[in-house]
Amino acid sequence: MDINNAVVVVTGASSGIGAATARAASRAGARVVLAARREERIADLARELDGAIAVRCDVTEVVQVDTLVRTVLEEFGRIDVLVNNAGQGFQATIENIALDDFRAVLELNLVAPLAVMQAVLPTMRSQGAGSIINVSSGTTFGDVPGTGGYVASKIALERLGAIARNELEGTGVTVSTMIPFATSTEFMSSIKAGRAEAEEMTVGAQFDTPEMVADAILQLIESGAPRLDLVPVAYGGSR
Q1: Alpha helices, DSSP H, located in the chain
Q2: End-to-end alpha-carbon separation of the chain, Å?
Q3: Is the pLDDT assigned to residue 188 strictly greater than 70?
Q4: Which of the following is catalytic: 150, 176, 178, 182?
Q5: 26 — pLDDT class (breaks 50, 70, 90)
Q6: In 3D, which of 157, 158, 137 has the Cα closest to residue 91?
Q7: Cα 160 to chain center, whole Å?
Q8: What b/e sequence results for 190-229 when a residue is b if at least 16 CB atoms lie within 10 Å of its CB, and e otherwise?
Q9: Architecture of the domain whose range is 7-228
Q10: Residues 130 and 120 sit within 8 Å (Cβ to Cβ)
Q11: Do 7 and 30 contact (CB within 8 A), yes or no?
Q12: Contact between 149 and 102 (Cβ < 8 Å)
C-alpha cells in the first residue's frame, strides 16, 4: 500500500514506537490519527504533524475504540492503515504470575488489538483495501525465564493476525506482524510487573531506536508481507 495520502491510525501513539511511526508516516505523506490515553502528549504531537489529529483512546474500552473509528471516518471518510502498537510489558516467573496482572496484560496486548481490528475491518472491507500491522516482540523468539506471561500475549497476537490474514485473502485487506528487537522506549517504565527484574535482564543490551522500528513498519505497510522482524540472526531472527 502507498503511504502517501493514506489515513493511518496509530495506537499507543504518545511515545516510543507509536510516536516514531506517526512521525515517519506523516513525513511520507500520510494523514495520521494519533490514539492513546495520554491526551496531552498526542495533542502536542498532532500540532507537530501536518494534518494529524489526536483522539484520546483507551483501547481496552470498546466504547472508546468505537468513538475512535467514528471520529476518523467523520474527519477523513476512510481508514487505510491500522498500526496496532499499544501494549505493555510484564515480567514474572510462571510460579509468581499474579493472575490479575496476567489478565490485564492479555486484555491490553491481545484482546484490545482484536477489538480495534474488528472496529476497522468493516470500513476496510467496503473500501476493498487496507493494511493492519500488529506489533509483537522479539521476546517471542526465545524462552527467557520471567517472560512467559508477556510472550504468551504476543505469541497469541501473532497467531491471531496470521489467521486473520488468511481469512481476509482476496478482500484487499492485509494483516501483517512487526517484530521489533529490544528498543529504546518507555517500555521499562510502564511495565506491568517485574520492572526491576526486566531492567536487570537487559543491562548491557544494545537497543534499537524507535525510528528504526518505525521505518520497518512503513516498509511492511508498503510491501504487505506477512511479517518482518528486526531480531538478529544470533537470536533466531533475520537481521
Answers
A1: 16-27, 39-48, 62-76, 99-106, 112-127, 148-167, 195-201, 210-223
A2: 23
A3: no
A4: 150
A5: very high
A6: 137
A7: 14
A8: ebbbbbebbeeeeeeeeebebbbbbbbbbebbeeeeebbb
A9: 3-Layer(aba) Sandwich (3.40)
A10: yes
A11: yes
A12: yes
Q: Helix or strand or coil: residue 189? A: helix
Question: From CA 189, how far away is CA 180, in angstroms rounded?
Answer: 18
Greater confidence (184 vs 144) lies with 144
Q: Which residues contact 101 (CB under 8 A, 6 or more apart)?
A: 90, 92, 149, 192, 193
For residue 77, pLDDT over 60 is answered with: yes
* All cell numbers assigned to 202: 537487559
Task: Output the DSSP codes for 105-149.
Answer: HHIIIIIHHHHHHHHHHHHHHHHT-EEEEEE--GGGGS--TT-HH
Residue 189 has which C-alpha cell?
517504565
Please state the domain extents for the chain.
7-228
**H runs (alpha helix) in 49-107:** 62-76, 99-106
What global pTM score does this model have?
0.91
* Amino acid letter, residue 223: S
Task: For the chain, give the percent of residues with pLDDT over 90.
Answer: 87
150 part of the active site: yes
Handedness of CA 163, 168, 169, 174 (dihedral sign): negative
Going 186 to 189 to 190 to 196, the CA torsion angle's sign is positive
Rounded to 10 degrees, the C-alpha dihedral 123/124/129/131 comes to 140
